[in-house]
Amino acid sequence: MSHPASRDMPLTDVASFVQHLQSSKRIVALLGAGLSASSGLPTFRGAGGLWRTYDATMLATPQAFQRDPGLSWQFYSYRRHMALNAKPNRAHLALAELARRNPAFITLSQNVDGLSPRANHPAGQLKLLHGNLFDVKCWDEHRCGYSRKNDFTDPIVPALALPTENPDSDLKAAAEKKKHALLRGADISDINVEIPQLKREDLPQCPSCKKNLLRPGVVWFGESLPEDVMSDVDDYFSDREKIDLMLVIGTSAKVYPAAGYTSIARAKGARVAVINMDRGDARELTKDDWFFEGDAAVIIPDILKTVVGEIGEFDDTKGPAL
Ligand SMILES: [Zn+2]
User: Fold this and answer.
1) Which of 184, 218, 252 is the C-terminal boundary of a domain?
2) Of 322, 321, 319, 300, residue with least CA distance to 311
3) Are residues 108 and 214 in the same domain?
4) CA dist., res. 114 & res. 86, Å (int)
5) Are residues 171 and 301 in the same domain?
6) At what angle do helices 296-303 and 14-22 cross, to 10 degrees?
7) How many independent structural domains does the chain possess?
8) CB atoms within 10 A of CB 284
9) Same structural domain for residues 188 and 261?
10) For the Deacetylase sirtuin-type domain, which residue ranges apply (predicted)?
11) Shared-domain flag, residues 194 and 68
12) Cβ proximity of 88 and 116 under 8 Å
């Protein structure tokens, strides 16, 4: 559908963006699920996300964990496995490079997949709003307080190895089928493979209190965002200096929390650039903003090129910065 030309429509040309970028000092990026999808990851957040026959949003609660920690851990173990088998894309790498070159650039990520940390994004400039699949903490975090970060062990305990199909089946064909499903962002876990009933003692145990289970270090529905992260974000936004540019990547600028951060950044002088597949966003922007429609993994390295240089593909051999 074509819109009539309007003065209120956002800019779409790279040249005007690059000009503003080059004079920008304080820059905020907000990352959402679309960036993970560019790396081939299903994200499960939001309506309609299914894992096997379960509504993923129903599994992402403290109550679900309490009710059936084995089921919850199998869901998160699956997601850890998938995330480890995905690679940071060129947008993750370009943003990490921008952070290295510009200490006044901060990234707020809603993604829990560990792809930005694995892209060597400087940790002090990366604020993980919803936690990280690769952090684990004691179920009773207030009384015990145990946590550990960036534990990439897969599976995290032997009992959480993915249930496998009959080894005689055509693995290659199955892998190919899964690859195509992944590219569509679909859930590929095979609902025909039964989920084992796990014993509590086979699940990850807290090594500190030796009483509770460990849980994934992600923010579940009904939980508040991590205090240390939020305090850093507040400090950045309440600084007296203006904000020059806000990049909204792979998420809609219309919905919380992007909408909230975007309006604070605007109030501090920022112009906004949205990079997303969903063109619905364009209508919310002004003529001083930019809207780039398409795959963030392609667009981000392109529009940041004059500042970050040419960005290649992720090099596995360098390994993650832990
Ligand atoms: Zn504990």
Assistant:
1) 218
2) 300
3) no
4) 10
5) no
6) 60
7) 2
8) 16
9) no
10) 7-310
11) yes
12) yes
Range of the domain at 156: 46-85+131-218
Binding-site residue positions for Zn(2+):
138, 144, 206, 209
Task: Please indicate, yes or no, whether residues 271 and 146 belong to a single structural domain of this protein.
Answer: no
pLDDT, tens only, 164-213: 644 444 555 555 555 555 544 444 455 556 778 899 999 999 999 999 99
Model pLDDT for residues 12-51, shown as the tens digit of each residue: 999 999 999 999 999 999 999 999 999 998 766 555 567 8
Distance, CA 58 to ligand 1 centroid (Å)?
25
Task: Quote the CA–CA distance of 322 and 320 in Å, as a whole number.
Answer: 6
Q: How far is the CA of 108 from the centre of ligand 1 (A)?
A: 29
Write down the pLDDT at residue 186: 45
Task: For residues 210 and 145, state if they share a domain.
Answer: yes
* CATH code for position 143: 3.30.1600.10
Angle among Cα 299, 301, 307 to the nearest 5 degrees reads 130
**CA of 142 relative to ligand 1 center, distance in Å:** 9
| 183 and 277 inside one domain | no
pLDDT tens sequence across 100-124: 999 999 999 999 999 999 999 999 9
CATH code of the domain in which 111 resides: 3.40.50.1220
Please give the pLDDT value at position 163: 73
Structure tokens at 11: 């800019």
Same domain? For 252 and 158 the reply is no
> Which residues sit with Cβ closer than 5 angstroms to ligand 1, an ion?
138, 144, 146, 206, 208-209, 212
Q: What is the pLDDT of residues 273-319, one digit of tens each?
A: 999 988 777 777 889 999 999 999 999 999 999 999 999 999 876 55
